[in-house]
Amino acid sequence: MSRIVRAAAIQISPVLGDDGLGTARKVCQAIRDAAEKGVKLAVFPETFIPYYPYFSFIQPAFRFGGEHLALYERAVVIPGPVTDMVAEAARATGMVVVLGVNERDVGTLYNTQIIFDATGEILLKRRKITPTYHERMVWGQGDGAGLKVVDTAVGRVGALACWEHYNPLARYALMTQHEEIHCAQFPGSLVGQIFADQMSVTIRHHALESGCFVVNATGWLTEEQIKEVARDPALEGPLRGGCFTAIVSPEGKFLGDPLTEGEGMVIADLDFALITKRKRMMDSVGHYARPELLSLLHNKQPARTVHYVGEHEQEGAVAFVKNGATA
């Protein structure tokens, strides 16, 4: 039997310069607004709380130390006040929420995606495995434990951030777990039209190859925010364009018109019968796969800086004994 889920890809601008709670409040209001439209899955942009580090794209590293430190002060601790606010909004509306944040873990920032279930429970906290280009001066690296599809109130949901979609093995790791809805997040307001054009191809390709729905959200900077971030008219150009908020079916079709400017939502009903229709023709991890020829090695062990040998498992450590068995 067919199952239908109403989803929203939300294009929205952050609140710059505050403690990060202003952006979190905007997220919660958007969740409530989407709920009034019958939405059961909402996807927000990459590292939306408190904001994407646009400064790192237009300034050399030796100049953005102050802005980087400010991002540390405004970053999200998980769990913490921000995740508590969003969890309550998800629970109150019965909505699954996929949110991008700058996560602070003591001395390191991460590009982190959080999946909240309709109960408000955090089902997944994953970190971008390889920050892209300028981002490597801002965030640490994630690990394979985050390449995980989770069962939610709306189905099996997976997520990747931005150019992780250009890592075919990362995408395949999620495909092997039979994701039904893939949540993609990009920063938006970056690079220009070519970024939006590439995004259009990227999310359609994953939908076709995985045989799943793709819900993609990008951020948006107003003209005033562009001027605030750039501080120099010559640097404003790279902060325009690059927005492409959209929802794609397993057949590679856009469900509604993509949103490329301004704040708003792309809302669509996802008919899960289309997943079976697509996979009957081409199931890339099933009847179309050739595992005896090609296979993926996926290390799902969380990255740790210390392994305590010969001691029982303690907080933040894995226990080992000399014969290799777990103590």
From TrEMBL:
UniProt cross-references to CDD domains, sorted A to Z:
nitrilases_CHs
- Domain CN hydrolase, first and last residues per copy: 5-272
Q: Where are the transmembrane segments?
A: none
What Pfam families is this protein classified in? CN_hydrolase
For this protein, what is any one GO molecular function term? nitrilase activity
Instruction: Write out the similarity annotation.
Output: Belongs to the carbon-nitrogen hydrolase superfamily. Nitrilase family.
Q: Which protein are we looking at?
A: Nitrilase
Q: Which organism is it from?
A: Acetobacter indonesiensis
